Amino acid sequence: MAQIISGKELAARIKQRVSGQVEELKAGGVTPCLAVVLVGDDPASAVYVRGKESDCRECGIGSRMLRLPADTTQAQLLEQLEKLAADKSVHGILVQLPLPAQIDEQAVIAAIPPEKDVDGFSPVNVGRMMIGEECFLPCTPAGCIEMLKSTGVPIAGKQAVVLGRSNIVGKPAAMLLLRENATVTICHSKTEDLAAVCAGADILVAAIGKPKFVTGDMVKPGAVVIDVGINRDENGKLCGDVDFAAAEAKASFITPVPGGVGLMTRAMLLVNTIQAARRQTGR
Ligand SMILES: Nc1nc2c(c(=O)[nH]1)N[C@@H](CN(C=O)c1ccc(C(=O)N[C@@H](CCC(=O)O)C(=O)O)cc1)CN2
């Protein structure tokens, strides 16, 4: 039976550390501040943005919430981002994804100055991550690595399989695992024998966006399973990309949904915001 990697406990520890760092910054006259931009009224995005607001409050980080209507044009959004970019009291900028269809996501991400891009999504930060330079790491993949490290299971030399190739999770998660010297395979919808590839993984990161996609036979006995998915099952209950009960019986460690990677995504954003404030103020 697998041990549960609790996102709740790990995130609470990180938040405690962040709160201390905020105190230090404030003592030096700097109040770290995160600006979050939400366009439209996607209910899940609204929940996530409220979560970010309350995390900031809890740790003493200042926050600016900019809620824009669903019919906001790209030009209007870019104008708002330009103002936030020029505002020295704002250290981190995040645009909640997904954006409404009329807005080009990549153009918006590229408009966030790399030094304020606390999501780590801008081309400059992605490039820096690829070549191992100092950068903001994307929050979900960084959270996955923290969870893996918390198990004490060595990553170096292990077969790691990442299920999913999105720009915000799959690809960067693979890159961060490579940085930890894992041997990394990325699987996707066109992968042949996908179940067999997964079954060979010592570390399995599921980020495919399909409820309970990973079945028990896809989990190697003793594997560490990190579930990034947030889905609803046939009963409308929150579930991950992994069939938890089946995988738990075979894995050595597993992350739950809810209470897993999502909470670490939130915590890593706070870490990045502190880093942004420190770099911009030289503290
Ligand atoms: N600009 C960004 N947009 C999005 C990101 C992101 O990192 N940056 N990631 C996701 C949404 N997201 C954060 O923004 C996020 C998703 C899930 C959770 C979370 O705490 N999940 C809980 C369950 C929540 C629920 O009840 O629905 C859990 O796993 O326990 C936090 C943040 C897409 N957009």
TrEMBL record:
<comment type="similarity">
    <text>Belongs to the tetrahydrofolate dehydrogenase/cyclohydrolase family.</text>
</comment>
<keyword id="KW-0658">Purine biosynthesis</keyword>
<dbReference type="GO" id="GO:0004488">
    <property type="term" value="F:methylenetetrahydrofolate dehydrogenase (NADP+) activity"/>
</dbReference>
<keyword id="KW-0368">Histidine biosynthesis</keyword>
<keyword id="KW-0486">Methionine biosynthesis</keyword>
<feature type="binding site">
    <location>
        <position position="230"/>
    </location>
    <ligand>
        <name>NADP(+)</name>
    </ligand>
</feature>
<feature type="binding site">
    <location>
        <begin position="164"/>
        <end position="166"/>
    </location>
    <ligand>
        <name>NADP(+)</name>
    </ligand>
</feature>
<feature type="domain" description="Tetrahydrofolate dehydrogenase/cyclohydrolase catalytic">
    <location>
        <begin position="5"/>
        <end position="119"/>
    </location>
</feature>
<comment type="subunit">
    <text>Homodimer.</text>
</comment>
<dbReference type="Pfam" id="PF02882">
    <property type="entry name" value="THF_DHG_CYH_C"/>
</dbReference>
<dbReference type="InterPro" id="IPR020631">
    <property type="entry name" value="THF_DH/CycHdrlase_NAD-bd_dom"/>
</dbReference>
<dbReference type="Pfam" id="PF00763">
    <property type="entry name" value="THF_DHG_CYH"/>
</dbReference>
<keyword id="KW-0511">Multifunctional enzyme</keyword>
<dbReference type="InterPro" id="IPR046346">
    <property type="entry name" value="Aminoacid_DH-like_N_sf"/>
</dbReference>
<dbReference type="GO" id="GO:0004477">
    <property type="term" value="F:methenyltetrahydrofolate cyclohydrolase activity"/>
</dbReference>
<comment type="pathway">
    <text>One-carbon metabolism; tetrahydrofolate interconversion.</text>
</comment>
<comment type="function">
    <text>Catalyzes the oxidation of 5,10-methylenetetrahydrofolate to 5,10-methenyltetrahydrofolate and then the hydrolysis of 5,10-methenyltetrahydrofolate to 10-formyltetrahydrofolate.</text>
</comment>
<protein>
    <recommendedName>
        <fullName>Bifunctional protein FolD</fullName>
        <ecNumber>1.5.1.5</ecNumber>
        <ecNumber>3.5.4.9</ecNumber>
    </recommendedName>
</protein>
<dbReference type="InterPro" id="IPR020630">
    <property type="entry name" value="THF_DH/CycHdrlase_cat_dom"/>
</dbReference>
<keyword id="KW-0560">Oxidoreductase</keyword>
<feature type="domain" description="Tetrahydrofolate dehydrogenase/cyclohydrolase NAD(P)-binding">
    <location>
        <begin position="138"/>
        <end position="280"/>
    </location>
</feature>
<keyword id="KW-0521">NADP</keyword>
<keyword id="KW-0028">Amino-acid biosynthesis</keyword>
<keyword id="KW-0554">One-carbon metabolism</keyword>
<keyword id="KW-0378">Hydrolase</keyword>
<dbReference type="InterPro" id="IPR000672">
    <property type="entry name" value="THF_DH/CycHdrlase"/>
</dbReference>
<dbReference type="InterPro" id="IPR036291">
    <property type="entry name" value="NAD(P)-bd_dom_sf"/>
</dbReference>
